[in-house]
Amino acid sequence: MASSPPSIEQTFDVDKLSYEIFSILESKFLFGYDDTKLFLPGSLPSTPTRSSNQSPSFRVRILSIDGGGRFSDALLAASALARLETTLRERSGDSMARISDFFDCAAGSGAGGVLASMLFARGPTGKSLFSAGEAFAILSKEINRNKGLFHGIFNWSSKSKKFRKMFNELTLKDAVKPLLVPCYDLATGAPFLFSRADAMENSSFNFKLSDVCEATYEESVEVRSVDARRKILAVGGGIAMGNPTAAAITHVLNNKKEFPLAGGVEDLLVVSLGSGEAEHGREKLAVPPSQADIVRIASEGVADVVDQAVAMAFGHSRSTNYIRIQASGSAMDRTDNHRRAVLGLTEKMLSQKNVESVLFRGKKISDKTNAEKLDYFAHELMKEHDRRRTNSGTDDSGTSHSSRYQQSKK
């Protein structure tokens, strides 16, 4: 007698099974994390699940900002963060709240590294040196001081002096939260990651923030640690690590001193800000393409690959734990240096629906605009903020995540 076909309940969910398998591979390849069981959502019978008293109370909040060599790259990210900051202020009832109050770790490359340093450097009051709104205002003011939007920070006159004036003697140790900024070190022929955690552990990894910004943004510069024991022959971070999201996630999952209970992607909230993708088909590139054209195209391709890999690693929790904000067709008249035109560009970016990766189904146009994504994630960040405030009886600003994270478990 022929056996009856298996019922729906008896069949495997192929997507879930594929995700379980992919998570094992991804945790090793992308994040360098060996305990693959911590990456699995526990949907398969063979996968052990955590008990309620083992699960972290808090999710680690990560901000990642792509690198780029154009002034607009930092401006677009600053615009998105200024909007997010305004929303968070309204929802928290704190008119002085800053982006750094709602994130536990920040990573930025190139122009994004400069912006991340501005938002996470410690100011005289103990809070971050700049709010997102202030950072956006500073960057937008530079438009009329240069010959158009696309001349960028690379063409700031005496930019090293500007960085020194902005950060004075502040070093990586002075960041209010863990900060990661990459560059490419010609001396070793490998990427180098400036890290607050490393600076805390070893003084030879502590650099002035002004030098960190030069290293991640400059075409070529030599920087030395504060104790002068370490020398970096730096090339811009956009070349080494245009999209630092994977590096930030790796840092959190392996940094057990500051994030002891972050076991996998389900314990994270990640906001990744792109630098804007040019519409190469509509732009007139140099024939043959210039070196700058080639570098930018390569950087955009690598950033997309990282985004896809991260989105795949988050799998079914991608829509709630990870968002990617990216602009497309951000090119505009290279001679247009009118501030209103640039502000209009940032509004256009926020109103776009960008292309996003879908688990095992390629890519599709997002259902939400960038602005709607930010508003949704503001809600998730506020839930996390309120959870910590309720648990600790105080607000979340000015206190390191690691101490609050550990205290909640005592």
UniProtKB/TrEMBL annotation:
It holds the Pfam family Patatin. It comes from the Eukaryota. Residues 392-403 have a biased composition (Low complexity). GO terms for molecular function: hydrolase activity. CDD domains: Pat17_PNPLA8_PNPLA9_like (cd07199). GO terms for biological process: defense response; lipid catabolic process. This is Patatin. It comes from Rhynchospora pubera.
